[in-house]
TrEMBL record:
This is Glyoxylase-like metal-dependent hydrolase (Beta-lactamase superfamily II). It comes from Anoxybacillus andreesenii. The keyword Hydrolase applies. Keywords: Hydrolase, Metal-binding, Zinc. Its cofactor is Zn(2+). Residues 188-209 are annotated as: Disordered.
């Protein structure tokens, strides 16, 4: 299994493609530039099975319908944010100059934690709220976790948007992410990848907790 990081849109939100040897793939957070992402998938001869969202902020959802409609695949999102896709005030697009973003409802809502399977892919879902109330992280035993905007290299997600809570975010990171094997690669929603070990050692927002 391998992963690719593709920054998309004006905020360079990281979309991730997780693919297996059979060229099947999962798509995480297709934030913008749907045509660019489709071209990439076609060039790589990949067959998407699903779209999984770490949360429903506008910069993570802008190309959801482009990809869903092109490949006729389901979208997964945590139940606490199931109404955000259609609401520019909740997904935050109302407050930015690019204009309101509305996306059709998710096909499946995630309402718990634990093992999840999509096709031949198996992974774990962790609730990691704080940046937003329905933020989740997806952990693959191959050694990586898609953390959305919870944890970044040397930083953490902002908590000044609707439903954000700094204390809740710190608790999520410590209880759900920092307990993973230290060599686990962290695939964040923005910026470069990192590891659990690096963030435990040097992230200024986590030291001394």
């Amino acid at each position: 299994m391998n992963w690719e990081q593709i920054p998309l849109g004006p905020l360079q939100t990281n979309c991730y493609i997780i693919a297996n040897k059979e060229k099947k793939c999962l798509i995480f957070d297709p934030g913008e530039e749907g045509s660019k992402l489709i071209r990439h998938l076609e060039q790589r001869k990949l067959t998407p099975l699903a779209i999984l969202l770490t949360h429903a902020h506008f910069d993570h959802i802008g190309a959801v319908d482009d990809i869903r409609n092109r490949y006729h695949i389901p979208v997964y999102l945590h139940e606490q944010e199931k109404g955000w896709l259609m609401d520019p005030a909740l997904n935050g697009s109302q407050f930015f100059m690019m204009g309101p973003i509305k996306v059709n409802p998710a096909d499946h809502v995630i309402n718990g934690e634990g093992k999840m399977e999509v096709g031949d892919f198996s992974f774990e879902v962790f609730a990691t709220p704080g940046h937003s109330p329905g933020s989740v992280s997806y952990y693959f035993e191959d050694g990586f976790v898609v953390s959305g905007d919870a944890l970044f290299q040397g930083s953490i997600g902002r908590t000044d948007l609707p439903g954000g809570n700094h204390e809740v975010l710190i608790k999520s990171i410590h209880e759900k992410l920092l307990v993973l094997p230290e060599e686990t690669q962290v695939l964040p929603g923005h910026g470069p990848t990192t590891t659990i070990e690096s963030e435990m050692d040097s992230n200024p927002f986590l030291n001394g907790f």
